[in-house]
Amino acid sequence: MHEFKVINGKLFCEKIEVELLARRFGTPLYVYSYQTLVDHFTKLKSAFRSVDPLICYSVKANSNLAILKVLVDRGAGLDIVSGGELFRALQAGCPAERIVYASVGKTDVEIQEAIRHGILCFNVESGPELENINRIAKKLNKIVKVALRLNPDIEPKTHKYITTGKLTNKFGIDLKSAYDALLLSNQYSHIDIAGLHIHIGSQITESSPFVAAIKKIIKFIDELKKAGIILKYLNIGGGLGIVYDGEKPQTAVKYASKVLPLLKKTGLKIIMEPGRFIVGNAGILVAKVLYIKSTPKKKFVIVDAGMNDLIRPALYSAYHNIIPLKAAARGKEVVDVVGPICESGDFLAKGRLLPKLKEGDYIAVMSAGAYGFSMSSNYNSRRKAQEVMVVKDESYVIRRRDAYEDLIHNEEIPLFLYGL
Ligand code: LLP
């Protein structure tokens, strides 16, 4: 459910007509619904309330400070993967003890910073990383909590680029190596291996892969208990799918009903890292139709948002529903909706049956709140889009559109190029 609704042929975000926002702020424009964001977080929290989990929203899905603050103020922790995300998390006011840090490639500087700030734990992805964190923690004279990210070798039934829990993926540690590391954990003088972590992929619409992965981990925890190893945390990652097209993803309640009985058995503090579930349907990308172009083979609707604004269709052939902001009784036709970028991969929809559009119309690319703006770039020296958040009948700019100066602000022309 979300707060983007067509009323009398016009798309509304909460109580504001989206076309008014497009005219006021210009396009491309990301529009987020505050209420939807809060609702999704609350749904998950209440479905899992019997274990009172720490919900660490996955910053990579949408890292805008205002969005982070909405969630942090409601008790969310944050799941980060870089020094940049640590910076954002702290800027948004997240207490360090609610931050968990994954990534296969943490640098020494990133590790140092995270230790200095006192994050809750590192989700460690390899033996060499474990040794490195131990070495750095020793230098800083700190005992650091870590969770081992396990690779349970489970097929999550999603796009291969966003599958992360198979042994052919770069993520996590296989169970045997993790077991060995835990048995030898006293050789890590400055590390407290306090938990286990899994994240098997993203946009997973059924609960069966989650259940299979958790069952494997529970067996593993039992083996550890037998060996006298007792943990504190179990982090079950993110990955919950949302509706883009005709999917019927499990609801928070259904997901909870399947995994909670298993999680309770562990007696461990549960951490989760949802990204898309919270923010995916809370945001849309609004674009303006620049031209309608007919070729002997196709009709193209050329809009002012491109793959630099939303790369998911180009990268994963992802489907995003597209709707005109205002209905017009002009019939329907099959078109490709494309952006202005000089690549044939620059499309938002291909072979899509849409209401007939004309120059100057606005469209909404739905379900663009997750991995939309956060994966956007300045390719073709295009300025990153503006972002606004709607709260009932008010709208707030949460990121200004880039200025041209922003495109070059770190660049320098060496004097010799001027002949000096
Ligand atoms: N935890 C870890 C360790 C992750 O790697 C991810 C996402 C999450 C949590 C959050 O997953 P979510 O609940 O959002 O599924 N760019 C892709 C998705 C990449 C996901 C990367 N990891 C897309 O646009 O579909």
Summarize the structure.
The chain is an alpha/beta fold and 420 residues long.
Question: Could you walk me through the main structural features you see in this protein, from its secondary elements to its overall organization?
Answer:
The protein is of the alpha/beta class. The chain has two domains: 4-31 and 280-408, Beta Barrel (Lyase, Ornithine Decarboxylase, Chain A, domain 1), CATH 2.40.37; 34-276, Alanine racemase (TIM Barrel). It is 28% helix and 25% strand. The protein is built from twelve helices and 20 strands. It has helices at 18-25, 34-47, 65-72, 83-91, 108-117, 127-139, 175-183, 208-226, 252-266, 276-279, 312-316, 404-408; strands spanning 4-7, 10-13, 16-17, 29-33, 54-58, 77-80, 99-101, 121-124, 144-149, 191-197, 233-235, 269-272, 283-294, 299-303, 322-324, 332-338, 347-355, 362-365, 386-391, 394-399. The strands form three sheets. Strands 4, 13, 14, 15, 16, 17, 18, 19 and 20 form a nine-stranded mixed β-sheet that branches. The longest helix is centred in the middle third of the chain and has 19 residues, at 208-226. It is globular, with a radius of gyration of 23 Å. The N and C termini lie far apart (62 Å). The protein binds ligand LLP. Residues 58, 60-61, 79, 102, 162, 164, 199, 202-203, 237-240, 273-277, 312, 316, 370-371, 375 line the site of ligand LLP.
